[in-house]
Amino acid sequence: MSRAETKSTEVHRGTSSDDGRPAGAPQVEVLAARDVPLGGPRAMTVRRTLPQRARTLIGAWCFADHYGPDAVEESGGMDVAPHPHTGLQTVSWLFSGEIEHRDSLGSHALVRPGELNLMTGGHGIAHSEVSTPGTAVLHGVQLWVALPDAHRNTARDFQHHVPEPQLLDGAELRVFLGCLAGAVSPVRTFTPLLGAEILLARHSALTLTVDPHFEHGLLVDQGDIRLSGVPLRPAELGYAHPGTDTLTITNESDGPARTILLGGTPFEEEIVMWWNFIGRSHEEIVQAREDWMTGDRFGSVTGYDGEPLPAPELPMVALKPRRRVV
Ligand code: MN
Question: In the CATH scheme, what architecture does the domain 24-264 have?
Fold first, then answer.
């Protein structure tokens, strides 16, 4: 995957006293998305909110790409040839369309709207992702979770889970990881995490009790949203610091809204992220790249029509670790 990135824009909203925040509401930082072309002949473009200079992680969530709704006829859809991952988990969550997933564990799965597909890279996995021929519109998110040091070399794994929708105050919640509003996902995580899709009816508000040890991020897909009073536009990610036990999500638009709520306990380890790898040092990344190009660490993907993706060249300077922005 090519990772050419346009310059990131930071937006600060909600830091003045006249921003309409209710008294006592948490301060919300607004993280803007930047457009990133994923490469390929017709180059599907995603909107990336994590990582960025102003915020590298939210809990162990370390990567957030939001895409669509894209007419596949124009965008070319998704066709990502086999590529490796290490030190992380990937979450594919769709709003519309369908993606065929194949990995070196032997998994062959269809990723569909409202269904969690959680792939654990651990020491190493390879996978391909291709939108199916029947997909007219592709729309969803691709998220990564950093694995903590104690578990980052765990065995590769793939889990599928369909959360039961929960109805609450005119909202519809699908809790795919962690627990929220009485719903609990059975999917195991390596650090305390929350991941949920929240649909809101027009002109409605939802107040959620959340774990005060967590930090949270609300990614807006659609609608005029406020997070605890702070306005968020589509594709923006509103960040709420730890110490908050209540989040209020308001939909001010005349139609339904869709958001993704992410959360987790602050991830304090320094990580090195490059291409599709997460490690702890430059040397580990060099080794992972070498292993992908010449070894069998990541296994092979069967059934994909085409060659695996070659790793890009490493930068001339040593990769620097990044840590959580406080
Ligand atoms: Mn991948």
Answer: Sandwich (2.60)
